[in-house]
Each structure stands twice: as structure tokens, then as C-alpha cells.
Amino acid sequence: MSVSHKQSLPIPVEHGVPHTKAFDSTLKLLSEGYPFFQRRCNELGSDVFTTRLMGRRAICVSGPEAARMFWQPGRFTRRGAIPPTTLMLLQDFGSAQTLDGEDHRHRKAMMMSLQTPADRARMVTIATEEWRARFARWPGQKRVVLFDEAESVLCAAAWRWAGIPAADIDHPRLTREFSAMIDGAGNAIRRTLQGLVLRSRTEHWAKNLIQAVRGGRTAPPPESPLAVIARHRDRDEQPLPVDIAANELINVLRPVVAVARFIIFGAQAMHEFPEWRPRIATGDDATLTMFAQEVRRYYPFFPAVGGRVLNAFDWRGLHFDEGTWVLFDMYGTNHDPAIWPEPQRFKPERFARWQSDAFDLVPQGAGDYLTGHRCPGEAMTVDLVKSALHLLASEVVYQVPRQDLTISLSRMPTMPASRFLIDVAAPVR
């Protein structure tokens, strides 16, 4: 789908593309959820359209061409492009995601320095230890809620990996707080308010950690995320303000807990497509990679991401003024038949010979990690999903009882309704 233009001069984007019929589409977005953008693209015959959301004019775009446009470095800012409550829950003000230009590149380089292959391997090792400790307890339980277990395991792995002393951790409480932040980032007022209340407690805890490192009362390993963030200096050679450093520490920990959703979707895929489970149990890396990437493509994570035009530009004969609000359709792009044949089928083998151009598979953003706003922890996400699914397939004997495995596309972020229940017989080991 595309819009062709014969005009030789760029025209304002709001006059050059189709507009939705509704005066304001907010209620439609909330009721339809993830498919909202792709449905409008199909109805209007265009991968670019305009609408109103929360009373504001928005330009909505989908597909790989739009991804190249949207993730062009320096073109968009995230400031003013995300609902304030969502921003406060997932990134907060002053974080790397809210910066632009050289300030963003400098801070992002620090965040990426925590995502080296060695860092990722250490995280997987710690997570594996936590999973196996959890497996040992499962046979004594009548039924296991796998989603809750995954969040708890990943939270423990995250704070251990980050170099946070165990004495400073209330693990059940921290897991609940991170879980509430993620779950509250969608469209339910109750969940949003709960997430904001619990995040304030997490911020207080994180500030104390930063101050303890700076005051010499805590001495984490120098290469650990806690030490790196506490001692980071921005371009002005000044330490980060305590509240900003605390936010960045949270922004390193919380996304690890969010990986639980991909793990649960992967467990559901093994249940719905059981022919893949013995292949995953072998531990073959190529098979695990194919499966994990298809889980990330097929199942819904976050529906879209917003940006405001930082510097006016032209694209496809259209002119985007400074300040224009643009929403990029992540879910629809991951289900675009022009990129993914039979997009509604779960087919891990589509990734057997896949070579990404960085603008096709976009569950966590697109483009360059260092210069753009793509999620710095994407590679770690894949590693954690692969490891967890292999462990579940090879080291635990369990049955999946009757339950409601419906995945509501109007709930953002979503998960299986039952949170994926399993009955454990015994660990393999």
C-alpha cells in the first residue's frame, strides 16, 4: 500500500493522505487495540493516514518504508509524543529516550555499553540459575502460574546482574512494582494509577542505591550497571542528577521483567504448535533463534510508538512540519503481508535464512541502536527468550490444563487471559 503524488512540490501531509471518517478515533483505538492502525490502512488503501486521537491530529504510518522514515536519526523527538502517564511508567523525564542529538547519543552509548555479548551471556547465566531454582520448587505446587513465575525469575536475574546487593532487595515487592509499571502503560486507568503509585516507591529505592554508591556505602563491581549508571557523566562532565540516574537504573531493570510476556507467548506457542517443543529441547541455536524471532513477530507486545517532528522534512512528496505528531504502527508492520507472507500464521521457519535490514522486524523499534531510539536491550531479550524456552522444553515435565488462553488484542499490553497455567509432574533433572 502506498500513496502516489504527482505534485512537484511537497504538500502538507494532512492534505496529501486519507483521513479517517471519525472526528476522533480515540475510542476506536481503545476498543480495537493492536489492529487499529492496520485496519485503517486496509480500509483507506494507504500505509499513511491522518486521524485525531485525544483531540490531537496524528499522522499514522506503517510498514518498512515508514520505519526508515520514522527512525531516521535526528528526525523525531519522543518529547511530547507519548502520553505523560505512559512516559512516566516506562521511561520518565530526563531518560535517554527523551533526549535528542548529541545528548541522546552520549547517554545511549552508556546504555549500550551494558549490552555487550559478555553482559548478555552473564544475564543468561544468572537467569538460568534462577529458573532452575524455581523448577526445583514447582513439583510441590499444585499449579503454577507461569507468567507470574517468569516475572519473578527475571526480576531476580535483573537485580543480580545489575550488581545490586541482596540486602537492598525486597524481591516480591520489586517484582510487583516492575510488573505494575509495565501493565499500567496501556489503556486502563486503574492499572495506570496503580503503576504510577508503585513506581514512586521504586524511584525512592533506586535513588537510595545511587546515593549509596556515590557515598561509598555500596561498592558494586565497576562494570555492573549500578556502578556504571551511578558514575556516568553526561556531556557537561557532570554526574547525572540522582533522580535521572535512578530512572536510568529502573530503565535497565524493568525491561528485563517485561521479557516475561515474550516467554509466556513462547510457552503458549510450544503448546499450540507441539511439533516445535522437541526441537527446542535439543538446544539447537538456529532453531531457538527462529522460534524466538517468530514469537516476537507474531504475538503482540506494544502496538505503536510516537514521535514529534524535530526538524521539518519531506517524504514521498509530503511535507512534515516541525511538531507534527506521528505514530508508527509496530504491530501492523510485524503483520504486513508485503514483508511477511501469511502473516497470521505462526511459521518460525520464515526466519531460517532471514537477513534483517533493521526495518522489517520491529517489536522493539527499528534502525540503528546507537543513533536512534531503538530499544538497547533487544538482543538480550532474544537471548533470554531462547534460554527460557529451551529450559522449559528440556528440563521440566508439565501438562497444560484447560484454561482461557485467549489473547485480547484490545488489552495493551496483553497476555494470555489465564496467565498460562501449568501442572508440573517433575523436573527432568
Automatic annotation (TrEMBL):
The keyword Transferase does not apply. This is Cytochrome P450. The keyword Ligase does not apply. Belongs to the cytochrome P450 family. It holds the Pfam family p450. InterPro entries: Cyt_P450 (IPR001128), Cyt_P450_sf (IPR036396). PANTHER family: CYTOCHROME P450 26, LANOSTEROL 14-ALPHA DEMETHYLASE. Keywords: Heme, Iron, Metal-binding, Monooxygenase, Oxidoreductase. The lineage of its organism: Bacteria, Pseudomonadati, Pseudomonadota, Betaproteobacteria, Burkholderiales. Its cofactor is heme. Gene3D superfamilies: Cytochrome P450 (1.10.630.10).
